[in-house]
Amino acid sequence: MIIKTLEELFKKIHKVYPDQLVLLKDNQFIISTYGEANKNQQRHHRMEEKFIYPIKSPAGEDYQVLAATELNKETLGFLELLINLYLEEIHSLDKKQILQYIATGHGKEVFLKSSHMNILKDQKSYQLIWIEAPLLEDEKELAEVLEECFKEDEGLTVVPTEEGIFILLEDKRQKEQLLGMAKTIRDMVNAELYLDVYIIISKEFNQLKKLPKILQGLKEVLLIGKTVTVRSHIYLEDELKLEKTIFSISKKEREGLYADIYENKGFEEMDEEAHLTIETFLKNNLNLGETSKALFIHRNTLAYRLDRISRLTGLDLRKFEDAIFFKIAMLLKKSI
């Protein structure tokens, strides 16, 4: 019998024992056969419960079972066996398995196990690198390649999940280091597995219990990034704030804004070269020199292109306000 979560275990117990049972550790509520929906109700039940039974885990930790009615010796023994089977499974997990467990949204129980505090501690900051492969069946080989590549780096852990792979970074790294890692991953995976992966790097966070929410947010922002910047495969979550804001607006409102902006027919007359020039200019923070290098063109050629865009649209991208307006216009067009 494999019990994946404590909630699942207590649902099974509730089928054979209909009265309420509560599991505590260090006087903290963990789970009840009634679930966790109403914490006030849980407190009320705890006041009424008169029967307390100690349980010692395989790791020697003390738990308490609170019961509304008295348990006979056989029932208590069976209950203790079920709970200890679960706790033994939890205590045997290594770091990667613990992180997989937390990523599913069931990390609460892990944090209540003091035996894991030497494996996972809340640092001042963590960061995630989320890697999305074209096909789910590619992920096993991808994880093996990543683990081999970073086996000497003790500050990170490669963690496969059902939807992709994330790397947890337990030490602070600079933006250039993170982008360098992402580029190394893409190049290596492409060379060894002939796969073209997408990568997004999270903002810093300081609590591992936030892991499920952060992973979900990264997946959503990556989808936005792939929609609005088709030429890129590496993204920084912190640099997609405007894009995320635009996509948080309802589609109907975006369509209305789009219609208002694109009454200016000049937007529709721009060719692919103009769009590439604009995207590169915005990406390089309106810097003429850096944009020229990125496009492999002369600075004068860039100036000519910007003048032509200005004649078509009435916007001078060298002006900050016009550049912001143009970026919003482009995002709206791509989001519809």
Automatic annotation (TrEMBL):
Organism: Alkaliphilus hydrothermalis
PucR C-terminal helix-turn-helix domain segment(s): 277-331
Annotated Pfam families: HTH_30
Domain of life: Bacteria
Protein's name in the database: Carbohydrate diacid regulator
InterPro entries: CdaR-like_regulators (IPR051448), PucR_C-HTH_dom (IPR025736), PucR_C-HTH_sf (IPR042070)
